[in-house]
């Protein structure tokens, strides 16, 4: 499909106004002189500036909220890691103290039993 640069119409269609040429048609010339809104120069208005400032303010608040959340998560992970280290330390210390308790109990029981006076049944008869 090709477009006629003079008329702006497709080449495979006929000109809808038989009595006028494209250059004589006022409607065509009027619209040809107007620019598409896409190509009009953009001027910032006060409303656009206010809208942009509101969007920027909202984005800054979202960014601050995300930063605070990241800091909170890092702090929470640090606390959980510290808690895990203390739990592991308490398990190790608990087992160490259990072994010490069992050793002291076995040694003291053995000592007490070994030092007790022996019953000499053969000397009393």
Automatic annotation (TrEMBL):
**GO CC terms on record?**
membrane
Residues crossing the lipid bilayer are 96-113
Biological-process GO terms, alphabetical: monoatomic ion transport
Q: Which Gene3D superfamilies match?
A: Neurotransmitter-gated ion-channel transmembrane domain (1.20.58.390)
UniProt keyword list:
Membrane, Transmembrane, Transmembrane helix
Q: Kindly provide the name given to this protein in its UniProt entry.
A: Uncharacterized protein
Report the source organism: Popillia japonica
